[in-house]
Amino acid sequence: MTTTPVRPGETPLAPGAPRSGTTFLGLPTAPRGVGHLRGDRPFPEAARDALRDGQLRANLGHATSTIRAKRAKVVGEVPDWEQLRQAGKALKASTMARLDEHLVELERQVAARGGTVHWARDADEANAIVTRLVQATGADEVVKVKSMATQEIGLNEALESAGITAHETDLAELIVQLGDDAPSHILVPAIHKNRAEIREIFLRTMPGVDPELTDEPRRLAMAARKHLRERFLRARVAISGANFAVAETGTLAVVESEGNGRMCLTLPQTLITVMGIEKLVPTWRDLEVFLQLLPRSSTGERMNPYTSMWSGVTPGDGPQEFHLVLLDNGRTAVLADEVGREALHCIRCSACLNVCPVYERTGGHSYGSVYPGPIGAVLSPQLTGVEDNASLPYASSLCGACYDACPVAIDIPSILVHLRAEHVEAQQRTTPEAAAFRLLSRAMSNPRLWHLTQRAASLGRFLARGKPTMPAALPPPASAWTRSRDLPAPPRETFVQQWTRERGGRS
Amino acid sequence: MRVALFATCLVDTVVPQVAMATARLLERLGHEVVVPPGQACCGQMHVNTGYRREAVPIVANHVRAFAGAEAVVSPSGSCVASIHHQQALVLRRAGEDGLAAEAEALAGRTYELSQFLVDVLGVTDVGAYYPHRVTYHPTCHSLRLLRVGDRPLQLLRAVRGLTLVELPAAEQCCGFGGTFSVKNADTSTAMLTDKMANVLSTHAEVCTAGDASCLMHIGGGLSRLRSGTRTVHLAEILASTEDAVTPRQTTEPAVPA
């Protein structure tokens, strides 16, 4: 257990991943093989396979368009939605500016109410802390509330290697766990599966399941309910994440739909919460804004069915032992980046995933991180260091739908562009691409050179041999375009040339 | 008004008829068009691919080329958005504060074509004639960065002979995305396929938009499929009249099969 709080202002890079243009001051915060923040393949390669999966495309297309419509409807009902968004953004920005002070206050308040606070520099430390805490209770199994932080650090695997079984209790997380699969969406981890596939997983893996189980949603939910109920009732330890932590009272909050969270947060004797340090809000009043923004943006509901809040422990009521593990895992390094730090404002609603045309087609697994979609493309590379996730900032057409949908107005396209530059500027050797862009930059900044370049480009028309389009079989990198799209043959004359020829010196 | 035309690097080099149409349209509306010969590129491709340092001289050239222009008009939502939202930032980051202030002032006088027509000139009926079935794709940067809204539709609705058909899922990106179209060619193509399916479902002869880049992508796909539906820039449609159809587009596809 470490007791020194992270002070972003003083040590912006410690602990931090190596960052371009700065000195490498410490160990990477999310070492390979522990945090689930990196894929084993670059995005374009993983996406290529996902795009061929017609069932996946159909499942995702159906699910995302349904949630998109629900969200648009309930957001449209709020006349001051834009003001709420701006309030959310401002609250997050001011909280991040003094995160160190708020965290120390949170620790003080949690401790004053009988809880214990632990500080984890990275995934490894967090896993070690939680494992030790579970072992101290003597339990060999835990129930879990759906949590992105514990997915990020790979807690289930860490517990398993210590002989502790973790039972996911959120329906979608359960589906993913039983199917020996990985989550592909922040809110709906099993969004890539349809009912028939879920039925098949339950029949294959759920002990004592009714062999007559159909793919009717109610029957599937009842099967999961029966399976989970046993585990809730015998569990002695629960592990959760947190949507928010209120510094002034040391209160933790979990927002959910199914009630499984409420079971985990109230029945077991011991509760362990793993929370990213950025989830904190200074005061109860701040929740007013976020509890309006979150459900409408995530599930498309006016209000979520269950909002559980707890402050420390209460004798005779609920868990009698409470531990809060505050996780850095690269967040302090993100905070040090003036442009990128806005990614820490994310409240994990997943609205950006549901509106993203790239996510809708490639699915979440292509991103290789537990954080997929637009927010994942800006968060994962920052948590790991851009060079460790260099393909993700390019996994976007910069269409801007994510920025419009984000309830705290994170300018995701601008961060993507910024991270692309961080990647380019981190290269030690000149890549062929960089050489081409540098040459083009020289040409485009000197009209004489530019006109020569254009004239050279216009020679491409001879390859077309009088046809209006270029040949489809061009060598790389042009082939990346011409494999699926015709390329018009360049004209004999550019517009500026033609204009100058026709109008002479009139310009 | 004396209007400086920024053709954009892509239009100038690959589809010059779009800039010519823009110039003829503005002249027909009684304005003087000038084409600063020093113009090249707004710098967006460099910035968006991560070459923000290399974009600095390109932006500087742009600011130089258009210095003193009363108003700059460009037939591209994306390039105008870059001029509005990126140029000054890129210069400031490079420590070019003076130039950044100039770029900002220039951006304030720079308009995307449909915004210039509707907001500055106050016209929606530009006197065009275009007897075709047309669907309109709102390009992402026009829609979400410049917020052109329904201005292009107002202009199209006033075109004589034109049948405007609504494009399903119009606000979904076509998948072009600049260098995204080659760096993530498969995903880009998957997005394009859905866009083309929606375009073809309208049975339009022509798909139009305010960006030649997105149209080159959509048109390149439609042409590869021998679909018969062609892409034509908004400027070309607005420049068309009974007497003087714009060069090479009323009867021929912009990118023929």
From TrEMBL, chain A:
Instruction: Using the record's annotation, list all stretches that form the 4Fe-4S ferredoxin-type domain.
Output: 343-410
For this UniProt record, give its keywords in alphabetical order, as a comma-separated list: 4Fe-4S, Electron transport, Iron, Iron-sulfur, Metal-binding, Repeat, Transport
**Residues annotated as domain Lactate utilization protein B C-terminal:** 428-503
Name the residues that span the membrane: none
Where in this protein does the record put region Disordered? Answer: 1-21, 473-507
InterPro entries associated with the record: 4Fe4S_Fe-S-bd (IPR017896), 4Fe4S_Fe_S_CS (IPR017900), FTHF_cligase-like_sf (IPR024185), Helical_ferredxn (IPR009051), LUD_dom (IPR003741), LutB/LldF (IPR004452), LutB_C (IPR024569), NagB/RpiA_transferase-like (IPR037171)
Q: Name one Pfam family in it.
A: Fer4_8
**Ranges of residues in domain LUD:** 105-326
Q: Which superkingdom does the taxonomy of this entry point to?
A: Bacteria
Q: Report the GO molecular function annotations.
A: 4 iron, 4 sulfur cluster binding; metal ion binding
Enumerate the Gene Ontology biological process terms: lactate metabolic process
Protein name per the record? L-lactate dehydrogenase complex protein LldF
UniProtKB/TrEMBL annotation, chain B:
| GO MF entry, a single one | oxidoreductase activity
Protein's UniProt name? L-lactate dehydrogenase complex protein LldE
User: Which Pfam families has this protein been placed in?
Assistant: CCG
Q: InterPro entries, per this entry?
A: Cys_rich_dom
Q: Which domain of life is it from?
A: Bacteria
One cellular component term from this protein's GO annotations in UniProt: cytosol
Domain (Cysteine-rich): residue spans on this chain: 3-83, 134-218
What PANTHER family does this protein's entry cite? LACTATE UTILIZATION PROTEIN A, UNCHARACTERIZED PROTEIN YKGE
